[in-house]
Amino acid sequence: MGPGLVARPLQSPSSLGADQQPSRDISLDYIYVVAGLLGLFFGGEALVRGSVGIARRMAIPPLLIGLTVVGFGTSTPELLVSVEAAWRGVPDIAIGNIVGSNIANILLIVGLTSLVWPIRVSGASLRRDTAVMVVAAVALVPIFAMGEIGRLPGFLLVAALAGYLTWAYGQSGDAGAEDADMPAPASSLVSGLWIVAGLIALMFGARFLVDGAASIARGFGVSEAFIGLTIVAVGTSLPELATSVIAAFRRQSEIAIGNIVGSNIFNVLGILGVTALIAPVPVADRFLTFDLPVMIIASLILTGLLLTRPIIGRGTGFAVLAAYAAYVWAAQG
Residue 291: which of 12, 92, 90 has the closest Cα? Predict the structure, then answer.
């Protein structure tokens, strides 16, 4: 088993004919995908837990923890998968993962969360954060139109994220009281071990998921873009899904919706920006003409719902879930 597992990732599926592919290779691809999803889910959870523990030990304000540690922590799977995909020469998975994750965050996770418990959200920062989410999505139009996301656009996206975090923290005021009723954080050693374990799980999970998903796409003639937009995107969104659903069960709507909006901002400005800084990413035409417009429309719909309705109920939840199913069906074309 050892030699087979070592050799397999280095062998392109296209180098063998369909009749030459051993049947166990197909099974191994699915094992890779499942192992990758599990690694991303548990790795993201461990990383967030450890990072929040360290941040609280350092007396970092809760709002900043949410904007940076939790927001970036739950987006780490997207980062590692997109970087891994770009390095391994599958840019459609790298970009599809980010665009698909943002679409899934809005249509799938908001839909499921509102079915668990209707979302009631209010807050002074809501208008600011949803505006940043929409502007970040629209800013990708000229970037995608260039046909490649180079290092300069990547740097500008990361700089925009730094500016947003600075602006948000400057407007946060004194949020220290929010930490008063929370249990004492774990020791620095325990938190550090959680971070290390989470990073290891995330790295292996990203590797397995990209390798398995790309092989399945080639083997069945499905485009890598579609795999990235659906299976990979939903897989890397598992931390956001878990966080939002748990928050919904606890009737903490602000956490549920804040996690989604914050993650979408990080995905575009941070994850895509960092990926482009590491390795410039070619952009397929379909992302500019179909998937990015869907992401922008979904962002506008979520913004409209949050700013004009006092509650996102179960009826709306069913509607956005149906919209996600329609998008997945249309994305196959």
Answer: 92
